[in-house]
Amino acid sequence: MIVELDSENFEREALNSIRPCIVKFHNNGCHLCAGLGPVFARLQKKYGQSMKFANIDTWKNFETAKPYLDGGVPTIQIFLRDNDPVLVEYPEEPSPYTGYPREYLDKWIYNYLLSYYIMEAKKEKNG
Hints:
By secondary structure, this protein is of the alpha/beta class. The chain has helices at 10-15, 31-47, 62-65, 102-125; strands at residues 2-5, 21-26, 52-57, 75-79, 86-87. Helix 2 (31-47) crosses helix 4. It is globular.
């Protein structure tokens, strides 16, 4: 399930998430955002057990989204309670249809989760 964020639930669902929450910042006027939708949905099916997936419409929730936009949409950030947001860097070779190619996002998420679980294991080990 991909959570739809707005100004009412953004803090609870993203900023205070107890597991990584990857957020796609988008709007209906963005063709790359529209193309990215199915890619994001496929990645949610693959990684949804390990992290929360969410969308926020930047037109409807501009003041909430504004601090996290990296020059426009689409922008993807990962949030986790008590941590700074992590920007998923826009690729050097973007897809003309989605901005972020599926393979690029897949690898990025995999590496993020690998790092996340290593850090969690170290925390657990150190008590």
